[in-house]
Every structure is written in C-alpha cells, then in structure tokens.
Amino acid sequence: MSYHLLILGCLLVFFSLLLIQIPALQPIDLAVVVWVSEQRSQTLNYIAQTLSFLGGMPALLFFATLWCIALAWYKKYAMIAFIVFGLSGSIACAWLLKYAFDLARPPAIYHLVHSYGASYPSAHSFYAASLAVLILFMTQQHPKRFYIGLIAVLWLLIMGISRVYLGVHYPSDVLAGWGMSLIWMSLLYGFGKFQFNLKQNFK
Question: Of 64, 69, 84, 95, which is the most buried if we count CB atoms within 10 A?
Fold first, then answer.
C-alpha cells in the first residue's frame, strides 16, 4: 500500500506544480476559489470554520497526544514512534516548504478565517493527509479497516476542500499538501518497515 500512496503523492505534487508553474493554467486556481466562494452559506461557513479549528496544529497535537497515551497503555511503542515521527515530520515539512516556495495566498477578500504563513502547500491538508495515512497504515489488520479507512479518506478530502472554501488556499496548495504528505508518510513507513518491521508491530 505504501508504494501506491507514494505514486499517488508524486502525481498530486506534479499536478500542483503544473498549476503554479504554467502561466496558462494559473488562472484556474483563482477561478476555483472565486466559484467556491459563490456557493457559500451560513451553515457551510460554520462547518468549514469548525474544520479549520479541528485541522490546525494545536488540535492535531492534542489528538495525537491522547492517541499516544492510549497506545502506551497497551505498550504499542512502535505505533507511538510512528505517530510522533510522522506528525512532527509533517509539521516541519509543511512549514519548511511554505518558506521555500513563499507563494501568496488568494486575495484577502475571499478569506473567512485568519491564515498564517505562505500559501503553498496547505498545512491543514498536509496534516489531514498525514493523519489519514497513519490511520490507514495502523489499522491494516483491523476487521473494520475498510470503514475506518473510508472515514480517514473522507477527513482528508473535506479538510482540503474546506481550505479552498474558506478562501485561504488555492486548489494547487491543497493538492501539494496532500501529495507531499503522502510522499513523506510512505517513505517513513517504508523505512520503518525495513528497519523495525513496523507491519508486524501494527498487528
């Protein structure tokens, strides 16, 4: 599964780079933001703003801490290490890439929430994809893994869509956040599986 996610991640990053590098495609990014802003309603605004809070770094770290505490009770130390390295690496990668690309966000007139840092990639999308991949990898042996995985993928999707809806990210930012996260988590899992037999520890 890690190889499939790695390939998917590379494709998403490739398409995001096309959107920001090819002049003929660049207007598509803003056109999507404008179109989505025209579909807003009070209910959708509330949902998207709630997702913005739940998908931010403080909420992510809070949830991850509770998750690690629960795993420590069952002495699942390999899982804890994977979560810690996965999420801390995701945070570091997202913000280093923001600094490296330093691309401007959509015009402030479209913003429904406060935003920090550069636009590319979307940190919320990066975190959501990392969390989804963690869940996918760690529930491979679970009897309800299909339903758990479906919820994880839906979380990834709605978080990314909400960032465009809120007007603080272009679609290219979201694709990059998803893609770069899939690449990072797949490589981390592949390394851990090779070095520490993670798959066996995840049973």
Answer: 64
